[in-house]
Structure formats: structure tokens, C-alpha cells
Amino acid sequence: MKKPVIFAHRGASAYAPENTGAAFRKAVEMKADGIELDVHLTLDGHIVVIHDERVDRTSNGSGWVKDMRLSELKELDFGSWFGSEFRGETILTLEEVLDLLKGWDGILNVELKSGPIFYEGLEQKTLDVLKAFGMTERAIISSFNHYSLLTVKQIEPGIKTGILYMAGLVEPWDYARKVGADAIHPYFVNIQPPIVQGCKAHGILMNPFTVDKPEHIRALAMAGVDGIITNVPDTAIAVISSLQEQ
User: Fold this and answer.
1) Which of 73, 116, 167, 204 could covalently link to 199 via disulfide, CB atoms 3.0 to 4.6 Å apart?
2) pTM greater than 0.85
3) How many domains does the chain have?
4) How many other CB atoms are there within 10 angstroms of residue 2's CB atom?
5) Tens of pLDDT, residues 92-133
């Protein structure tokens, strides 16, 4: 069995507040092969790492990321909602995350949050940061907005991209190739034997999300997926290790 890449979804987000330094450090500590994170643009053009278009769910503030300056966002607490021990966790820029990950040799999955808010220049800015940190060879750009992925490939043809989707696409490998993508990132229930066979036959990688239950992790690994995006990287690593020992 080929060992799939274990991506820590928004960091080790079952154990620390998502998309924060604490979650990324925990993912590294757990020896995740990859880290997945989400990016938006602030009012003053900084790339910040947060899942939602608004800060309400994951901070003590309220409002749209697009309407706030980085300095305003930095004043908010992005940790207390998860647990008092995380009080004071701040929002991070993409540059700050890459600084934090210096010395880590895993794969970075950057999800462009382009829709329903469309950020002008997000693709170029993200690629510029990845280039500055020498990360383009160890990155994959994903998005539910496949037009964004087309833009990424136009700017940087060599970087890997992955199409995120929820629905049961017919022959997704053909669609992936049509938009120049290297991978599919489907909701995990859409990984069925014909999809696995078709993707393997056409050289398309499969990195399903978000896979947390051991039985699902085991089934997908045995099916031959290339990566598993999970909130519990330690559980996924343990499941994969047990399979390799059999």
C-alpha cells in the first residue's frame, strides 16, 4: 500500500484553534506530512490565514475580513473561543505561517477562499509569497473557485492545483485536466472505486477531505488515495502505520 500524505486540516484543528500558530505547531509536532490552510485578503491587501469570510466564529470580533486592516485584525483574540489556554492567539499572515514552518519539510495546501467574496489579485499575491519562501515545489493550491485555479496556472504553470468540490462529479479526472488541475480534492464520500480507477489511469492525484473517523481513513488509504485531509493527523498517522504493519 502506498502511504498517503496526511494533511492537517487548518492545522491540527481538533486540538487547537483552527488556522492559528498553535494548530500549525501541533501539526508539526504530530509529524503531519502536510498542512492545509485558507487565505483571504484584508482591506489593506495582506494575505491572512482564516477560513471564514467573517471573523465572528473564530474570534472575539465581528465583521468581514475584506473590510478590516491587518492592524485591526491583529487586535482580535482568535484562540479563546476554542479554549482559555489559547487566549491571545492572533490571526497570521501567510508570511508569518511560512516563517513559523521554516525547517519543516512537508507539503503546504493553500486554499484560496475566492467566493462569495472575490479578492482581486489573491492568486498573484499568494504565488509571490510562496516563491519568496521557496515553497512552490512543496505547495498545492486548491479552491472551490476553479476560475481561480485557472488564473494560478496561467501565472505559474508548474505549481500543483487541486479542484475542491462537494458533488458527485462524473469522470472528475477529465474535468480536472480541462482546467489544468493536478488533483481532485473532493468531499471524501465521493471517492468510489470507479473514481479511484479513473484518476489513477489518467494521472490525477486524489486528496479527499475532511476524513476523521479511523474506519474512513483506513478505507481511503486502502483504496489508494494520494492524500488525506484530516482534523486529526495523529489518528490518521496511527491508522496508516497499523496498515503498513499488517
Assistant:
1) 204
2) yes
3) 1
4) 7
5) 999 999 999 999 999 999 999 999 999 999 999 999 999 999
